[in-house]
Amino acid sequence: MKSKVIALSAISSAFIALFLTLGAYVTFIDLISVVFASAFTVLPLYYKSFTGSFLSFLAGGIIAFLFSGFNVYSLVFPAFFFFFGCYPIIKSIFTEKNFNKVLSIIIGLIWCVAFSYGLYFYYVFFMKMQLTDFPETIIRYIYFFIPVFAVILFIIFDRFIVAVKMVEDRYLKRIIK
Q: Helices 86-96 and 30-39 sit at what angle, rounded to 10 degrees?
């Protein structure tokens, strides 16, 4: 790897660790911090370095997990490691290799719905958390609301990653000569 890629990956890892640690400690901004952390996984892709992006994803997540005191009850780490951190890298690989756009969107949608169901089952059945804050209608029909929520989340997150990548590339082009 070149030194510029390593430096950009280190900066990316630091921001990922910062936002994930913040989300692990402050529970009302946990999903927002995961989305912001995932925006920094695409930073090394300015140099088309998928290895640097993947290593910054892993390093930032592991550092944040250590700084949070191995907080397995936080929503931040399963969300980041199983969807929000991986998806921008996979999407960039699909875009770089000219993969079929419709098929890549279908794969992303299925992945997001499966991730949402997995997160629900993890927290409700494995961690024994209660859904007392939601209305009774949503709790009764939760298996129907999860895919609807996942599709909406995927559409918003996919567009967010595309916009972030364009903005980051524009500003990095001005900064890095």
A: 30
Which residues neighbour 44 within 8 Å (Cβ) at sequence distance 6 or greater? Answer: 5, 8, 9, 12, 52, 53, 56
Task: Give yes or no for a contact between 17 and 73, defined as CB atoms under 8 angstroms apart.
Answer: no
State how far the Cα of 148 lies from the Cα of 5, in Å rounded to an integer: 38
What single string gives the DSSP state of each residue in 44-90? GGGGT-HHHHHHHHHHHHHHHHHHTTS-TT-SHHHHIIIIITHHHHH
pLDDT of residue 63: 97
Q: Residue 157 pLDDT > 90, yes or no? A: yes
pTM above 0.85, yes or no: yes
Q: From its phi and psi, is residue 165 left (phi > 0), alpha (psi between -120 and 50) or beta?
A: alpha
